[in-house]
What does this fold into?
Amino acid sequence: MTQTIRLLLVDDQNLFREGLHILLSTQPDFEVVGEACNGEEGLKLAATLNPTVVLMDLRMPVLGGVAATRRLHSAQPEIRVIVLTTFDDDEDVFEALKAGAAGYLLKDTPSARLFEAIRTTARGESFLQPSVTAKLVAEFNRLSAAPVPPKQSLTEALSERELEILKLVAEGFSNRELATALFITEGTVKNHLTNILSKLNARDRTQAAFKARELGLI
It folds into this structure.
């Protein structure tokens, strides 16, 4: 039996929230458990409703999406946050991901992609709009052209396979794409990613990629 994914919608546009609620309710494995009009209200509802995934707008009154995501990730790290916004400026993207967002989508994304993003992040993976992935790749390329600080040591070194996976993660590969590219199962990919996150003391694959760059590993 498919597990129900509990959703919390945080957006200051009432009409958009209502439409999104109706759209998500068409999926048998989704349940919209609450709606909030700003980040502060969203945090209060998350504490009581314990949703699986929060769909978070970025620019809202009282408390914006980045600050709300950071506080939510600190208080309830098991809750996955997907930023759903009209903005994809570089600063917005990087700040949201650094705050702990597991996904980043624009509001004009097709419904099928939104559904996929929700199910993907609910499984503990990340899901980024293709344009956002391109921005991350561009940022990594920019950093690669800059002087690299001396490599720092880890408590436990990454294996050759883990480094290989980490490099592909930094390029925006999903678990399925990693499995296909490396001729291994998705389960094996997840095991490697678990080890990578543990060794890098990273909360998710995006932070792992950034930390790896800072350590001079990729």
